[in-house]
Amino acid sequence: MTDALVAAAIAARENAHAPFSKFKVGAAVQDEQGNIYTGCNVENATYGLTVCAERIAIFKAISEGARKFVRVAVTADTETLTPPCGACRQILWEFCGDVELVLSNLHGKTETLHLGTLFPRAFDASFLQPEFRS
Ligand code: THU
Predict the structure, then answer these.
(1) Which domain holds residue 117?
(2) Quick one: average pLDDT of 65-86?
(3) Spatial CA neighbour of 13 closest among 50, 45, 48, 38
(4) Most C-beta atoms within 10 A of its C-beta, which of 9, 13, 90, 132?
(5) How confident is the model at residue 134 (pLDDT cuts 50, 70, 90)?
(6) Structure pTM?
């Protein structure tokens, strides 16, 4: 069965602007209502201003008003499935918590895990403000 979220991430990857690394990544996040927001990596000639696919997807979702997320998909053309980088793990954690994360490649290989397994003992808003404690 085709996973619509994975399919959305694979489609978004096609839009990647990756002329420097040639490494295209796609991401998609799904909110509680079932809405899907996608992203691709957008590179910059300064390199450091590059933004990953995951952050584009979650920031698009936040800017559209979405707040509660149930699943995240990340895809790249790698045999070993590509996980979110450290910066993206932090950002995803702050908006999605221990969300279900589906990694995939272009050959149908997938793995489902939870963000917390990739990002244990995270620093987040709960350390700053008691009201954010779960
Ligand atoms: N990249 C992502 O978009 N997401 C990841 O999780 C890993 C890395 C991008 C950033 C850069 O454009 C390229 O992949 C190579 O690092």
Answers:
(1) 4-132
(2) 98
(3) 38
(4) 9
(5) low
(6) 0.96
40 lines ligand 1 (CB under 6 A): no
- Which DSSP category does 47 fall into? S
Number of structural domains in the chain:
1
User: Separation of 39 CA from ligand 1 center, angstroms?
Assistant: 11
For ligand 1, is residue 84 a contact (CB within 6 Å)? yes
Burial class of residue 58 (count of CB atoms within 10 Å of its CB; 0-12, 13-18, 19+): buried
Q: What is the pLDDT of residue 1?
A: 65
- Overall size of the chain counted in residues: 134
Percent of the chain with pLDDT over 90: 94
> b vs e for 91-107, b when ≥16 Cβ sit within 10 Å of the residue's Cβ?
bbbebbeebbbbbbbee
Q: In the annotation, is 79 catalytic? A: no
